[in-house]
C-alpha cells in the first residue's frame, strides 16, 4: 500500500491555482470566495473517490470513511487534516499539505478497498490563520466547544464584516456536525516552517509538542529631562533601562535550554533627540516547550527586571498580556508516527513546534499528533515557501502508516 506522490503533488499545484497571485503567491483568506473555492476543490476530490463531503455550521469541511466495527469500542474516527485558508500572499504548502495528505490517505484506502476497524476521516478546519477574523484556529476551537455558533457568527473582521454575513453570502455553512462523531485520534501533516529538519538532513519529523508562550508588557516610569543640562548620575533614563531589559531577556535564553525570548516592541516617551526618555513600554515574548520551565522563566525575568529598575530608581510595572500553555502530544499517537517513520526508513527525528496549529487545540480534547515536513530555508507565510515533492510524499506516507496503526488495519 503506497501513496501516489505524483497525485499528491499535482493536487498541491491545483489547489495553489485557487487564489493564485501574479507574483507566485497564494491568497485564500478565511470566509472569502477563494477560501470557499479551495474547500470546493477538496470536496470535489472527496466526491470523486466516493466519499460524501460534509460541512458544519461554521464551514469546517469533513468526510468520514466508515470502519468495519460499528458497535464495538472501535467507532472513534481517526481524523486527519489541517486547513486550506492562508495568510495574505502565502505559499502553497502551509495547511494545504495536511489536507491533501489526508485526502491522499483516503484515496489509497478507497482504491485498495482497504478495511480498517476504526473509521478514518478528513477535516479541513476553517480560519486557522486568523488574518481577517480572530481568533486563529477558529475551526478547531469551535469543534472543541470553546466557541458557540452565535459567537462565531457575530465576530467581525478587520473590514467590519461579520462572519455570519460571509457564511450566508457564500453559502459556506452546512448542517452536519463533526462533533457528533467520537474521535479516536487527530493527526496533522504540516510543513515545519522552521530550519531544524533541513539542518538535520531529515525529510520528516515527529512533533512531540507545541511550545507554550507568555507575553508580558513592561511599563517604566522615570524622569524626562534636558539632554544637555542633566548630569549623567542624576538621570532616570527609561531608554537605558529598556536596553538593559532587552539584554537580560537575551541572557536568560542563554541560561535556560530551549527558552526563546524576544523584546519585539519598545516605545519611548517623549521619543525626542534631546530629551532623556521619561517613560518606556516594552513587550517580552517568552516561549518554551515545557510548561513549568516556561512559568519559572517568566517569574525569573520578572524578578530580574524589577531588581534592575530599582537600581535605576525607576518605577516599573509588569503585566501579563497573553499566554498559551505548552502542549505535549499523545504518546500513543507520537509512537504511531515514529513507528511509521521507522518502517519507511525515514529516521527518528523528533521536534517541538514553534508555531501554533489546529493539532494543539485538538490535543486537549483528543489524542493528537503532528508530522512535520522539511521546509526549505525555514521560510513560510511567503510565496517562497517550499517543500520538495519527495518530502511532501514522505509526510503523506508517514501519515498513511500512522493512520493505519491507529485505525487498525484488517488483514
Ligand atoms: Zn498552517
Structural notes for this entry:
Helices cover 36% and strands 21% of the residues. The chain is of the alpha/beta class and 411 residues long. The chain folds into 2 domains: 288 residues, Aminopeptidase, CATH 3.40.630; 113 residues, Alpha-Beta Plaits, CATH 3.30.70.360. α1 packs across α3. The two termini are 12 Å apart. Bound molecules: zinc ion. Zinc ion (ZN) binds next to loops.
- The beta-strand count equals 14
- Round the mean pLDDT to the nearest integer and report it: 96
Largest sheet: 9 strands, mixed
Strand pairing plus helix content: what structural class? alpha/beta
Q: What's the architecture of the largest domain, going by CATH?
A: 3-Layer(aba) Sandwich
Which homologous superfamily in CATH is the superfamily of the largest domain? Zn peptidases
Order of helices and strands: HHEEEHEHHHEHEEHEEEHEEHEHEH
Question: What fraction of residues sit in β-strands?
Answer: 15-25%
Bound molecules: zinc ion
Task: Give structural attributes.
elongated, 12 helices, 2 domains, alpha/beta, binds zinc ion, Aminopeptidase, Alpha-Beta Plaits, 14 strands, nine-stranded mixed sheet, 411 residues, five-stranded antiparallel sheet
Topology:
Elements: H1 5-17, H2 33-48, E1 54-55, E2 61-65, E3 77-83, H3 96-112, E4 120-125, H4 138-144, H5 149-154, H6 163-170, E5 183-191, H7 196-200, E6 204-210, E7 212-221, H8 238-255, E8 260-262, E9 266-269, E10 279-288, H9 291-312, E11 315-324, E12 327-328, H10 331-343, E13 350-353, H11 358-363, E14 368-373, H12 389-407
This protein binds zinc ion.
Zinc ion binds at residues 83, 94-95, 128, 190.
Amino acid at each position: 500500500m503506497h501513496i501516489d506522490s505524483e497525485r499528491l503533488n499535482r493536487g498541491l499545484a491545483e489547489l495553489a491555482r485557487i487564489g493564485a497571485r501574479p507574483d507566485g503567491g497564494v491568497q485564500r483568506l478565511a470566509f472569502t470566495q477563494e477560501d470557499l473555492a479551495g474547500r470546493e476543490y477538496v470536496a470535489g476530490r472527496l466526491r470523486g473517490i466516493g466519499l460524501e463531503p460534509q460541512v458544519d455550521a461554521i464551514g469546517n469541511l469533513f468526510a468520514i470513511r466508515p470502519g468495519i466495527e460499528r458497535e464495538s469500542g472501535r467507532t472513534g474516527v481517526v481524523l486527519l487534516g489541517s486547513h486550506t485558508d492562508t495568510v495574505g500572499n502565502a505559499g502553497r504548502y502551509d495547511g494545504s499539505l495536511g489536507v491533501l495528505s489526508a485526502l491522499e490517505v483516503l484515496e489509497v484506502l478507497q482504491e485498495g478497498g482497504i478495511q480498517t476497524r476504526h473509521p478514518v476521516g478528513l477535516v479541513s478546519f476553517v480560519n486557522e490563520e486568523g488574518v481577517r477574523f480572530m481568533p486563529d484556529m477558529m475551526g478547531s476551537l469551535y469543534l472543541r466547544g470553546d466557541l458557540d455558533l452565535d459567537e462565531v457568527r457575530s465576530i467581525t473582521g478587520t473590514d467590519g464584516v461579520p462572519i455570519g454575513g460571509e457564511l450566508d453570502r457564500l453559502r459556506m455553512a452546512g448542517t452536519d456536525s463533526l462533533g457528533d462523531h467520537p474521535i479516536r485520534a487527530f493527526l496533522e501533516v504540516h510543513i515545519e516552517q522552521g530550519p531544524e529538519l533541513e539542518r538535520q538532513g531529515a525529510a520528516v519529523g515527529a512533533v512531540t509538542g507545541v511550545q507554550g508562550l507568555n507575553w508580558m508588557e513592561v511599563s517604566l516610569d522615570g524622569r524626562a529631562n534636558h539632554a544637555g543640562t542633566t548630569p549623567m548620575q542624576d538621570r532616570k533614563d527609561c531608554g537605558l533601562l529598556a536596553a538593559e531589559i532587552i539584554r537580560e531577556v537575551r541572557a536568560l535564553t542563554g541560561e535556560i535550554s530551549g527558552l526563546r525570548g524576544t523584546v519585539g516592541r519598545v516605545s519611548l516617551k517623549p521619543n525626542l533627540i534631546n530629551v532623556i526618555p521619561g517613560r518606556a513600554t516594552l513587550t517580552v515574548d517568552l516561549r518554551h516547550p515545557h510548561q513549568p520551565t516556561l512559568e519559572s522563566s517568566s517569574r525569573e525575568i520578572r524578578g530580574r527586571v524589577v531588581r534592575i529598575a530599582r537600581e535605576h530608581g525607576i518605577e516599573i510595572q509588569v503585566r501579563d498580556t497573553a499566554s498559551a500553555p505548552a502542549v505535549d502530544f499523545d504518546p500513543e499517537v507520537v509512537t504511531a508516527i515514529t513507528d511509521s517513520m521507522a518502517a519507511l526508513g525515514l529516521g527518528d527525528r523528533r521536534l517541538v513546534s514553534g508555531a501554533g496549529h489546529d493539532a494543539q487545540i485538538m490535543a486537549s480534547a483528543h489524542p493528537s499528533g503532528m508530522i512535520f515536513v522539511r521546509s526549505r530555508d525555514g521560510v513560510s507565510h511567503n510565496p517562497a515557501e517550499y517543500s520538495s515533492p519527495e518530502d511532501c510524499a514522505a509526510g503523506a506516507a508517514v501519515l498513511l502508516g500512522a493512520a493505519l496503526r491507529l485505525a487498525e488495519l484488517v488483514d
